[in-house]
């Protein structure tokens, strides 16, 4: 069977710790990059397919031009990232600009924000579908592909190790580098199953503080918290929201909430139900006087706006909003 786009990618489930090899067998650990998941198909050219099945190759003319390095009949799974040449680092904001540009604008951005494809799996080679092969064999094929064809930037082989100690070092140290947010854990014996959450992802999480500016739910039964930080002028900016609160945490928060004053800075503001979603949350504004200690991963936009829901650790009744890190200074 020859694979044709669109193909649903295999997925990963978020976990708090590495699964026991006794339950899932020998494990491989890959670095997890903060980019756009994409499948690359070659057949006299290049097709880039997103996880949602959309085609985005016209947004990345530099990848199209570099497709001549790749043999035909190939399907790679990986992550598209963008390098900010001025800042000298990977940039998700820059990647969003690349993904939204076409034509001359897309071509112009290839200089300041060049794209890279970080390959971590191979689903087809020489027109032969490889989904049933175990990860161990697919990884060996992928490494041989890069070595045999001497693939170079923008084609990049995702770092992998079978050493849990090295993987832990990646999780604790490498995630301090912009663009790296954790590790993905894959059983070595596992075939590639489109749409199945058979991999495991661990994101580095840091503890910091934010101000509770609104809630979803009611004052007596909050469902989740909408968080903010003040800028240097004292104006509150949204920075994210929590995951749904546990019942005990909801009761604790409810006992400290106060109804918002008429001059609340978020009056009239709308909040998306999720990052990138057009659906809106029904929210209740509260007096921005409570400080929450949160656990958050490293996926942040400008100013430290969290793209994924954060976790409430506790209320910081000993802190004032003025002691919370300022908006625009990063995640804090």
TrEMBL record:
It comes from the Bacteria. GO terms for molecular function: ATP binding; DNA ligase (ATP) activity. SUPFAM superfamilies: DNA ligase/mRNA capping enzyme, catalytic domain. It catalyses: ATP + (deoxyribonucleotide)n-3'-hydroxyl + 5'-phospho-(deoxyribonucleotide)m = (deoxyribonucleotide)n+m + AMP + diphosphate. Pfam families: DNA_ligase_A_M (PF01068). Gene3D superfamilies: DNA ligase/mRNA capping enzyme, Nucleic acid-binding proteins. Keywords: Ligase, Plasmid. One of its GO terms (biological process) is DNA recombination. Residues 108-236 form the ATP-dependent DNA ligase family profile domain. Belongs to the ATP-dependent DNA ligase family. This is ATP-dependent DNA ligase. It comes from Streptomyces globosus. The lineage of its organism: Bacteria, Bacillati, Actinomycetota, Actinomycetes, Kitasatosporales.
């Amino acid at each position: 069977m020859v694979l044709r786009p669109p193909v649903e990618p295999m997925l990963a489930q978020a976990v708090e710790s590495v699964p026991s090899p006794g339950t899932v067998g020998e494990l491989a650990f890959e670095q997890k990059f903060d980019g756009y998941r994409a499948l690359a198909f070659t057949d006299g050219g290049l097709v880039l397919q997103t996880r949602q099945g959309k085609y985005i190759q016209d947004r990345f003319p530099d990848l199209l031009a570099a497709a001549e390095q790749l043999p035909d009949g190939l399907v790679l799974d990986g992550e598209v990232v963008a390098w900010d040449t001025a800042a000298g680092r990977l940039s998700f904001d820059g990647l969003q600009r690349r993904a939204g540009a076409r034509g001359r604008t897309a071509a112009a951005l290839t200089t300041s924000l060049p794209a890279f494809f970080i390959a971590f799996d191979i689903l087809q080679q020489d027109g032969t579908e490889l989904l049933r092969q175990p990860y161990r064999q697919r990884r060996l094929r992928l490494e041989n592909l890069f070595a045999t064809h001497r693939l170079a930037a923008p084609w990049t082989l995702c770092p992998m190790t079978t050493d849990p100690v090295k993987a832990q070092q990646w999780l604790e140290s490498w995630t301090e580098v912009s663009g790296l947010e954790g590790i993905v854990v894959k059983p070595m014996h596992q075939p590639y199953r489109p749409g199945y959450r058979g991999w495991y992802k661990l994101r580095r999480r840091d503890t910091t503080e934010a101000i509770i500016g609104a809630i979803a739910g009611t004052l007596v039964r909050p469902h989740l918290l909408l968080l903010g930080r003040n800028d240097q002028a004292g104006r509150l900016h949204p920075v994210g929201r929590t995951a749904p609160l546990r019942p005990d945490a909801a009761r604790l928060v409810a006992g400290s909430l106060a109804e918002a004053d008429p001059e609340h800075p978020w009056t009239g503001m709308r909040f998306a139900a999720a990052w990138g979603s057009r659906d809106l949350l029904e929210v209740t504004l509260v007096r921005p006087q409570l400080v929450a200690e949160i656990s958050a991963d490293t996926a942040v936009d400008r100013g430290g706006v969290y793209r994924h829901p954060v976790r409430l650790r506790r209320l910081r009744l000993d802190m004032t909003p003025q002691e919370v890190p300022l908006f625009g200074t990063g995640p804090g």
